[in-house]
Design goal:
Helicase, Ruva Protein, domain 3; alpha/beta; 6-stranded mixed beta sheet; 5-stranded parallel beta sheet; Rossmann fold; 19 helices; about 475 residues
Amino acid sequence: MNARVSPAAPLRVERELRAIVIDDDEATCDLLEAALGREGVEVVSFTDAASALEEVGARPPHVVVTDLEMQGVGGLDVVQRLGQSHPDIPVVVITGHADVEHAVGALRAGAYDFLTKPLDLKRVAPAVRRAGRHHFLSAEIRRLRHRVREQHDFRSIVGSSAAMREVFGLVQRVARTDASVLVTGESGTGKELIARALHERSARSDGPFVAVNCAAVPANLIESELFGHTKGAFTDARADRKGLFAAAEGGTLFLDEIGELPIETQPKLLRALQERRVRPVGGDAEVPFDARIVTATNRTLTDEVAEGRFREDLFYRINVVTVELPPLRERGTDVLALAQHFVELISERYGKQVRGIAPDTAKCLLDYPWPGNVRELENSVDRAVALTRYDQLTVDDLPARVRDHQPDRMPSAEVDEPEAMLTLAELEERHLRRVLKLCDDNKSRAARVLGIDRRTLYRKLDRLDGGDA
């Protein structure tokens, strides 16, 4: 092994750059060390690739520069091995004029750039700097992507109730694994949003997210939809077609309403999940697939198994981890947070200046049981925003079924005597306090939810806390 570290001159690159040079000609190593050292690049050179690869494993550089034609491990081997072990390190290859074809082969194998011999030293440092910028930019993109995922976890799922915090915690723990997940819950609770959150938090997030509603596909087409088909497999099969398992390669396949899957298709799905291979309809060969499977249902699958409508072995195959979504009626003041979220989205879509929800409207939203869950709430807010003439949603803007609903008992009193009921001022205070608690005492956010400015909120709080006395 021959490794030397060149002294780094004052930096003239965007960031401190470290490079490994590999060439079995010691004179070439000397030339490259000098040329790059003058540009402020820290260089470690090797006359054999095996030792250089060991150094990469111990202290990864930002860029690798390697000759293509070397004794023992060649430059193409270096490109291929680094592509597997350190795909974030760009490789610049060096080749003779007569071997440009080999350089093109190296580029196809994953090299970032190439230089030709005899070396023009004026071109070496710019090429390495470009490769270094590529490395730093790629690292920054990965960092920002990770930061966005961390900061905006479940950004499409609004809620801070204890029940939803438990769901979020479970999703966080299981997302980085490849375990099969079954998402259960009533219709409209947001099962697909949870499936997408699992995908976005997984190592497969750069791959596709493919969703299919098993209840929406005719029974005679579901197998072709999932597994694909060959030309001539049936009357309308005019060409080979890949199925959704193949379309989800490297990502996540979400099978919604899995309880609606025809019983005759279930053994084929079970085999595919067990073998990680699918057989297209009409085909003779099985095709491997690499996709995570997430399923969802609004049925109680244990009852379906007991009634013989769902295979028990398939149930256990898809049910490695269960994420159970609570109905909206069990999520407390999440109703208000979701309603405000929809107000902001829908008012922007309609170009209307609707800022919030009036207190008596909020009470109606809290009292209503929402049998259609989040989907019904969104529909109701959509209607209310479309109809309202004010900057706050009023009771009259709500659908009749919501505004006329009578709860089983008055939430503001344990008895029905008029003297025990709350005044409008008391109701407003209770609503204000609940929103503040929901917003973790963030007054700016609470003011937005209430549809008032922050100064008005402070004035109300001051009055309630005795500041005007």
